[in-house]
Amino acid sequence: MKGTLALYTTVYPGVEPYLPDWYRSVQEQTDQDFRLWMGLDTISVNAVRDVLGVDPKAVWVAAPAGDTPAQVRQRALAKIVGAHEAVVLVDSDDILYPSRVASARAALRESDVAVCALRVVNGEGQDLGVTFALPSSGGADAVLPRNNIFGLSNSSYRSTVLRRCLPIPGDAMLVDWYLATLAWLLGARFHADSEVGMAYRQHGANTARVLPPFDSAQVARDTDRVRGHFARVQSAPLPTAAAGRLNEVGAAAAEVDAFYRQVVLQPAVFDRYLKDLNVLAPAPYWWACVAHPALRELWAPARSLS
User: Fold this and answer.
1) Which position has the higher pLDDT, 243 or 273?
2) What is the pTM of this model?
């Protein structure tokens, strides 16, 4: 893609230890033809400059006190889609590989949404030997709408499509999944790059855990978030052309609701599910720990025909 490109991240309290590594990786991009945008979530421009030791020359988008994380991102993305033809999304606690921007630009020449593989690292940046990537066949349909691989750190959007996915509901907890699901419902063209483009940190402040062991508090919390996500997607204003795929969202939501009732609310069953889940070690997709299909018999047992 030849048009103007934005690189967007959100900065917030707690991310400061990771910002220098993130900014160095931005400076090391082989493609520097982009405009850096930074959303400020209850943190000041001066605080970011102090941590980095330089002025990153970004377009700053400050959020009023009380804005939710979703509103912070909505405020920035609404401005970006009016100023640029596409945006590369990166998390400020992660590390860009040198070709991240160049690969995203190339992918968006023939697609509306592009995603790169992620390499999982710990808080200190040490490789954990796990890669997030779409399956080799099936594309976005192999993951959406049931799970997510399209994060705010490894996705890129053409503004023509992203604009149609806005506004983000102010109470949305899973902004990345919401945007990707709406783009999928709208028939966007997806491109998956198997090349690793980001190092994705797993640390205590992550919204979603992707590696075992999973515990009851985390899976219960994730289940609430997934149920909320599906409710927001089903409430989104969508054209009638999306009805077929919206039925798939409804089916996934119904399974998660059944999982909540039959597993999460049943302590003995929940214990068995967690034990089996940790042995299974789910594929590295976000929210794969909720209602994993390999354990479906726990909340949707087969009925006897006798």
Assistant:
1) 273
2) 0.94
